[in-house]
Amino acid sequence: MIVLVLNCGSSSLKYQVLDMKSDNDFTLMAKGLVERIGEKVGALTHKVGDGKYSVEMPIPDHTVGIKAVLDLLVSKEHGVLKSLSDIDAVGHRVAHGGEYFKGSALVDDTTEAEIEKLCVLAPLHNPANLLGVRAVKELMPGTPQVTVFDTAFHQTMPDYAYIYPLPYEYYEKYSVRRYGFHGSSHKFVSKRAAEFAGLELENSKIITCHLGNGSSITAVKDGKCIDTSMGFTPQEGVPMGTRSGAIDPTIIPFIAGKEGFGPADVEKMLNKKSGLLGISGVSSDCRDIEEAAANGNVRASLAQNILAYSIKKIVGSYAAALGGVDCIVFTGGIGENSAPTRRDVCDGLEFLGVKINQEVNDATHGKDTMISTPDSKVKVCVIATNEELVIARDTMNIVNNLKK
């Protein structure tokens, strides 16, 4: 089955085309990125194998962007398909599934309506995701579509993990609760880590650390999420590239009063000016911060220390919530590539039985590697995430079940 995977943002879309023979037997045929949708001039980058093609063109909306991708996929010079009918199904990443979607779903009128209702909980992401669904419906009528939700993996959390200690009426009236995000990544790497570490997923205690510009940590017991660090929005949890993560909420009205901030100013401060950027004053990129710290920048070093310390605290609390831990997993841009961050997080976890091979850790970048020593009671590994594969797998399985 040939599956087109789409990940639509507000002004961009990523795509992959995978030939799915089974969950573990697949071929990546092409991938790419459409950027600056809605601006005067957009950009499309298309990759097939080692080949790369880029073009600038007006891309006023997502329908035009997706049509440009489809045209490329069947073009004589850069294409990988004979015709669009070769695409058996389309899978979409959708940010928020609320409490309605416990798993991935076939697109029908009800699915669209429920995603639209949830736009109030994810106003930057769900509308863009929905635009992708509707663009495909217009351009490829009759092609099955599947939506895969960032929040779905976390729907197994118990109520005492997801209910906030606020007046309960706000949960009943407005669905204010912990939802969690990066679900496809946590689902993928926890399963892959169990296989890699020789654990039985259904009888395991795993902590997955998805660390990047946005970061979240998840406690996975017997293959199911029991807690996660992101909350009602992706703002909660550890410090991120430009997001503050968890802070004392009373800080917000205090600063707003001192600075004369309105709601938009506060949101901009918390989401765009805080985190690693706000602490370091250097950059939101961990690579820049590591370089600045190595050159003696005190605030860059502070940003590194705050990040590692925050991650370590959550890892420790999740070890308690799980009643122990078999495996700690690092993934995402920082998790897969930042040896100093992994080292600093694990430093001090010896009481859990964590022992790191520093030489292996220092040499590991972006590939599946066991970085703990053979005698470490807790396995520690780096697993390269693949959210697009999760989407393709779910799409294939749901569409195949339709045929039975």
Give the topology, please:
Elements: E1 2-8, E2 13-22, E3 25-35, E4 42-48, E5 51-57, H1 62-73, E6 89-94, E7 105-106, H2 109-117, H3 126-139, E8 145-149, H4 159-162, H5 169-174, H6 183-197, E9 205-210, E10 216-221, E11 224-228, H7 251-259, H8 263-272, H9 275-280, H10 286-294, H11 298-322, E12 327-331, H12 332-337, H13 339-346, H14 358-363, E13 369-370, E14 379-382, H15 387-402
Question: Would you kindly provide a brief summary of this structure?
Answer:
With 404 residues, the chain is of the alpha/beta class.
Explain this structure.
The chain has 404 residues and is an alpha/beta fold. The chain contains 15 helices and 14 strands. It has helices at residues 62-73, 109-117, 126-139, 159-162, 169-174, 183-197, 251-259, 263-272, 275-280, 286-294, 298-322, 332-337, 339-346, 358-363, 387-402, and strands spanning 2-8, 13-22, 25-35, 42-48, 51-57, 89-94, 105-106, 145-149, 205-210, 216-221, 224-228, 327-331, 369-370, 379-382. The protein has an 8-stranded mixed sheet, sandwiched between helices. The longest helix has 25 residues, at 298-322. The radius of gyration is 22 Å and the shape is globular.
